[in-house]
Amino acid sequence: MATAIRRNSSTGDHEVIFRKLKVASNGVGSLGNTIYTVPFPDISPYEVTEARLPKVAACYIDSDSEFVEFEFTYQYFDPRPNQYIDNDWEVAVARCRFANPSSNFDSISPDWFNDPEVEYIEDHEFADIQPDIVYDPTTGDIYVVLVVYIAPGTTNLRVIEAARDSEDLDVDWGTADPAQSPIPEHNSFHPRIDVGQVNYGDYQNNDWLVGIAYTGWDYTRGWHIRLNYWKTTETTPDDFTKNDVGWDDPMFALFPAGVPSIDIGPPGSDHAAIVWMQAKSDDWANATVMYADTKHSYLPAGQQIGYGRMHPDSTWGSTCSAFPSVAVHEYDDTYESSISFLITTDYVTGKWTPTAAHVLTYNNLAVVTFSNNLTLLGVDDAEGKWDSGTTVEHYFGMTTALTVYENNYWMVWSGFDSSDAGGPTSVWGAYGNTN
Amino acid sequence: MRNFIMALVALLMFVSCGKLDPVHPELCGSDLDRAGMTFQTAVEIFSGDADYPTVDADNCEVINSIGSGSEGTPWEDSSGNH
Question: Is A178 touching B (CB cutoff 8 A)?
Answer without folding.
Answer: no
